[in-house]
């Protein structure tokens, strides 16, 4: 049987989690969103993670979404579920994901506290000990790992990957080097917001796997960029960065929480009833949604032209 490590390839799809105006889960829309992503050619579905508003989901809604993602993918691509908060709560979400049939876990940072390296090691060790699912560590915010900590955690047979959402390339290179020196076999991922903007730099470190929020609303554009990145076609990647991704990032910087709310707006613009973002996030300003629509049209004109 092919292992999860061998299957995690291609554009990684982080679906939004639709809801109605009262923030009640719209599971039918979520199913449609997952089906569309798989049909478009994603490499994996990362359900209920950052773009999927994990911190705003109840355990019941989380479990329903992970189970729905597993059903809709039907084994064609892996389903990785987000998990997080402090250790005990993370264990509860992990158990729900395991029961729902997920293939692995993306371990989001612990809630609120600023742990030291030993605290991080204990937390992720306990999380991996408590599940049969493979675990991918996610470095960002208050979960910043020193190389020695990554090497220690990589000795756990259940920890298979390291996703970097911090963006310190010097630190990341030291982590990669330490893991390689210790013969720690880890998959590395670029997890920065709008990861395509940093994909060329991460490619220089040997990292070509990344999360694509853009895949949520213009999968063809995300696929075109991914294909060009792997082929070394920098003319295509540069044009998409200059005319779409850089303006998108500049728009994203116009509001707090736009890394999620702007993506959900893009999904709505493309025809799916995804609903609003959940509290404490807020909707993007109407003029920013209008600008997003213009950027989408520009990107489509680039990738769909003969």
Automatic annotation (TrEMBL):
Domain of life: Bacteria
Keywords from the named record: Lyase
Catalyzed reaction equations: 5-dehydro-4-deoxy-D-glucarate + H(+) = 2,5-dioxopentanoate + CO2 + H2O
Any matching Pfam family: DHDPS
NCBIfam families referenced in this protein's UniProt entry, alphabetically: PRK03620.1
Family: Belongs to the DapA family.
Name of the molecule in the record: Probable 5-dehydro-4-deoxyglucarate dehydratase
This protein's pathway: Carbohydrate acid metabolism; D-glucarate degradation; 2,5-dioxopentanoate from D-glucarate: step 2/2
Organism: Sphaerisporangium rhizosphaerae
EC number: 4.2.1.41
HAMAP family tied to this protein: KDGDH (MF_00694)
């Amino acid at each position: 049987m092919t292992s999860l490590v061998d299957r995690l390839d291609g554009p990684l799809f982080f679906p939004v989690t639709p809801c109605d105006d009262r923030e009640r889960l719209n599971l039918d829309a979520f199913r449609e969103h997952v089906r569309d992503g798989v049909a478009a050619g994603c490499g994996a579905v990362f359900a209920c993670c950052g773009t999927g508003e994990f911190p705003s989901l109840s355990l019941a809604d989380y479990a329903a979404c992970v189970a729905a993602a597993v059903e809709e993918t039907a084994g064609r691509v892996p389903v990785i579920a987000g998990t997080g908060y402090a250790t005990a709560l993370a264990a509860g979400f992990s158990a729900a994901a395991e029961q729902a049939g997920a293939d692995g876990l993306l371990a989001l940072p612990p809630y609120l506290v600023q742990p030291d390296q030993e605290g991080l090691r204990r937390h992720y060790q306990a999380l991996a000990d408590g599940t049969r699912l493979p675990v991918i560590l996610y470095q960002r915010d208050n979960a910043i790992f020193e190389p020695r900590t990554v090497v220690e955690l990589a000795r756990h047979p259940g920890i298979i990957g390291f996703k970097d959402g911090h963006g310190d390339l010097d630190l990341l290179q030291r982590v990669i080097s330490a893991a390689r020196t210790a013969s720690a076999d880890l998959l590395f991922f670029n997890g920065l917001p709008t990861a395509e903007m940093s994909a060329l730099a991460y490619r220089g470190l040997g990292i070509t796997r990344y999360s694509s929020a853009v895949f949520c609303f213009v999968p063809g554009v995300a696929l075109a960029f991914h294909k060009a990145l792997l082929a070394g076609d920098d003319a295509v990647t540069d044009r998409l960065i200059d005319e779409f991704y850089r303006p998108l990032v500049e728009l994203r910087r116009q509001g707090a929480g736009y890394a999620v709310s702007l993506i959900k707006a893009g999904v709505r613009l493309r025809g799916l009833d995804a609903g609003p973002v959940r509290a404490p996030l807020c909707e993007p300003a109407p003029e920013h949604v209008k600008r997003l629509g213009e950027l989408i049209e520009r990107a489509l004109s680039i990738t769909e032209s003969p």
